[in-house]
Amino acid sequence: MIDEIVKMLEVPLESIDAIAVSGGPGSFTGLRIGSATAKGLGLALKKPLIHVPTMDAMGYCLYGASALICPMLDARRQQVYTGLYRYEEKFEIVKEQYITDIHALIAELNERGERVIFLGDGVPVNRAVIEEEMKVPYSFAPAQASRQRASAVAALGAVYLAEERPRRQPSTSRIICGNRRRSASARSQSARARWISWQPVLWLWRRNNGGRNENAKRASCSDSGFTAGGSSCGPGTGTGMLFGCMVGEAFTGSADEQLG
Predict the structure, then answer these.
(1) What is the pLDDT of residues 159-176, one digit of tens each?
(2) How far apart are CA 121 and CA 253, in angstroms?
(3) What pairing do the DSSP bridges indicate for beta strands 116-119 and 138-140?
(4) How many angstroms separate the CA atoms of 233 and 209, rounded?
(5) pLDDT digit string (tens) for 9-38?
(6) DSSP β-bridge partners for residue 82
(7) Which DSSP string do the residues of 206-225 spell out, in sequence order?
(8) Which residues in the chain belong to E strands, given as ranges?
(9) Which of 168, 169, 187 is nearest to 177 (CA)?
(10) Cross-strand partners of 100
(11) 184-208 and 28-45 are packed helices; what angle lies between their axes, rounded to 10 degrees?
(12) What is the pTM of this model?
């Protein structure tokens, strides 16, 4: 797909200045594939990666809005991923993206007393609650401006590059952290999700290092990368390096897992 776009536009990848990537929240699989692809291209082309939070990119779609912009993604159990923005002339982050209960969000918006524009896939799910509890004027963005757009990620990435913001690497940890928001049961589900994310990397490492052996009995991962049996998965195969980079970002802090 990337190759087809490059050929269609006749723009060589070497000519780009940076790679912007949506850092979440969003689909776990979508985020890790996007992050791995972007990081692989960044390493190969020696280009910086610009992390663009999903909520920022959604808010950036509504240029000229004379109201408080409130994108939301459905996080289930009457919770939403959201953030608050203004974009009448210059894009302004009023409140960075976070996860909250829909009732708490509406209470905060009512307290602010400003007109609000809602957008995102969390709107249809929570529309009845919004219509029942909102006390201040509000409206819903039209369909063409109510979803995540790759063009908004690229455009806002260019702004962040020009502002020379600290460049954080894209991370799938946001969706994992989102799953930790409730009980011990939810945290247990998060742990299972993290274990699942290990599987491709461990399989690749074993395949490239002689299969199952005593040296592959333990593995560890941190923000600096992925190691197993005292060896790193990079440099190595392109796929192994991509997955290794992805998993190194998927954990907050460090982790030590016992292989079966």
Answers:
(1) 999 988 755 544 333 332
(2) 31
(3) parallel
(4) 9
(5) 898 999 999 999 999 998 889 999 999 999
(6) 72, 98
(7) HHHTTSS-GGGSEEEEETTE
(8) 19-22, 49-52, 65-76, 79-87, 92-101, 116-119, 138-140, 218-222, 225-228, 231-232, 255-258
(9) 187
(10) 80
(11) 40
(12) 0.65
